[in-house]
Design a protein that fits this description.
The chain has 181 residues and is mainly α. Helices cover 61% and strands 7% of the residues. It has eight helices and four strands; from the N terminus they run αβαβαβααααβα.
């Protein structure tokens, strides 16, 4: 919930007051944050016409999706991502030495943790071969690298893209000035 004394809320309210009919785009960390902010402005009786909010991912999606899909790729949902990571984890478990595999509990908790880690690595621009390559790397890290590679292979083979690819493409389009709204 936005506090009544919030500096940000006051700034946004002033922006809306100074530009009542102009479109205003506010980048927020989550849709809920944008919703709370517009609710606060409305409850205070202030105008907020044409105030739009986007998360970084939703803005990137708006910018990059037409270009990506024109290339024949389709968006991977969060559920599909979990499924692909679960499948890649199963394949990695089969390809690694059995005495090491016994130390992992392969289930929904592991899949969710792997998805969170792989998503963070992808958003940071870190590829599987960029990390965990030392000769005495712990088994869990080797396993993660195998799962990560399997996930990327699956995306490539099925022509699907995820949020990390969306952000990368949006940044590339912004860098080349290819995107004009």
């Amino acid at each position: 919930m936005v506090r009544a004394e919030s500096y940000l809320a006051k700034q946004v309210a002033a922006l809306c007051r100074d530009h009542p009919v102009r479109r205003k785009l506010l980048i927020v960390p989550s849709r809920q944050a944008g919703y709370n902010l517009t609710n606060w402005i409305a409850r205070e009786g202030r105008g907020w016409a044409h105030l739009c909010f986007e998360t970084p991912v939703s803005l990137a999606e708006r910018i990059a999706r037409p270009s990506i899909e024109a290339s024949g790729w389709r968006r991977l949902s969060a559920d599909e991502s979990l499924f692909e990571i679960h499948r890649a984890a199963g394949a990695a478990l089969k390809s690694l030495p059995s005495e090491q595999v016994a130390s992992l509990a392969h289930g929904p908790g592991l899949t969710s943790a792997l998805a969170t880690t792989i998503n963070a690595l992808r958003l940071a621009g870190i590829q599987p071969d960029d990390v965990f390559t030392a000769p005495n790397t712990p088994f869990q890290q080797v396993f993660l690298r195998h799962v990560y590679r399997g996930y990327l292979d699956s995306l490539g083979k099925s022509n699907r893209y995820d949020a990390a690819q969306t952000l990368t493409t949006a940044c590339d389009l912004a860098d080349t000035s290819a995107y004009i709204e």
